[in-house]
Design goal:
By secondary structure, this protein is of the alpha/beta class. Helix content is 42%, strand content 15%. The chain has eight helices and seven strands. It has a five-stranded parallel beta sheet, sandwiched between helices. A hairpin with a 4-residue loop joins strand 3 and strand 4. Helix 5 packs antiparallel against helix 6 (174-185).
Length: 229
């Protein structure tokens, strides 16, 4: 474990040396908050009703992040509390046979994106992007979905050491752990969300502990209440 962490840290240092630092974000941007920050600590996004997407009676929420950051757990809690429908993309893809192949090297299924998007369009997108809403989608990627589907995109982040421990507890191989920890170090999902969705829709939240999860759940519930108002 120590050797793997040293390799990952070395790769991160090389990446930082090869890439100039990014400029400081403007006020109220979606920069990564300080460790321990949650959704409630950040400026509130404009309500989804101001989005160019067709109106819906309830908002759709996407929760994304590196595997092990707590996406499915948070999505389940939010959906249950709000009376929404959880849509776990990976689980649905396996259940509905929407996978393209099985990656033996990384011990994971690879979804067929076209089939998954067709399946989601009728349920999450409402056919034309409107519909009833009220879905909480969770997946470890976010750039494949149409922007019009979601009113709030929450990217969960996690301390690298904590993430390593969580993935090891799942029985992941050293290679699979290394790949996922590298994604977290390089903030892959954070950048993907920023490039794929409007700035005022994306929120980046720490998910290092159960207290963080509870705080994020409460803040999302508050956001849903404001959206309905």
């Amino acid at each position: 474990k120590t050797a793997l962490r040293e390799v990952v840290t070395l790769k991160a240092c090389r990446w930082l040396n090869q890439n100039p630092p990014l400029p400081l974000p403007p006020p109220h941007s979606t920069h990564r908050p300080a460790r321990g920050s949650t959704l409630r600590d950040q400026p509130p996004p404009r309500m989804g009703k101001s989005s160019p997407a067709p109106p819906r009676s309830r908002p759709n929420i996407l929760i994304t992040g590196t595997p092990g950051t707590g996406k499915s757990s948070l999505a389940e809690r939010v959906a249950a509390a709000a009376g929404f429908t959880q849509y776990d993309v990976s689980a649905v893809a396996k259940q509905e046979k929407l996978c393209a192949e099985y990656d033996e090297e990384l011990d994971t299924y690879v979804i067929d994106e076209d089939k998954v998007l067709d399946h989601m369009e009728e349920r999450v997108g409402g056919g034309d992007g409107g519909g009833e809403g009220g879905h909480v989608v969770d997946y470890h990627s976010c750039d494949l979905f149409p922007e019009r589907w979601f009113d709030l995109v929450v990217v969960l982040t996690c301390d690298n050491g904590e993430l390593y421990s969580r993935l090891a507890a799942r029985g992941y191989s050293e290679k699979k752990i290394s790949k996922n920890v590298e994604c977290e170090i390089f903030q892959t999902l954070v950048e993907e969300a920023r490039e794929s969705y409007a700035e005022d829709v994306v929120r980046i939240c720490a998910s290092d502990s159960i207290e963080d999860m509870e705080a994020n759940e409460a803040a999302i519930a508050e956001w849903i209440a404001q959206w309905k108002a």
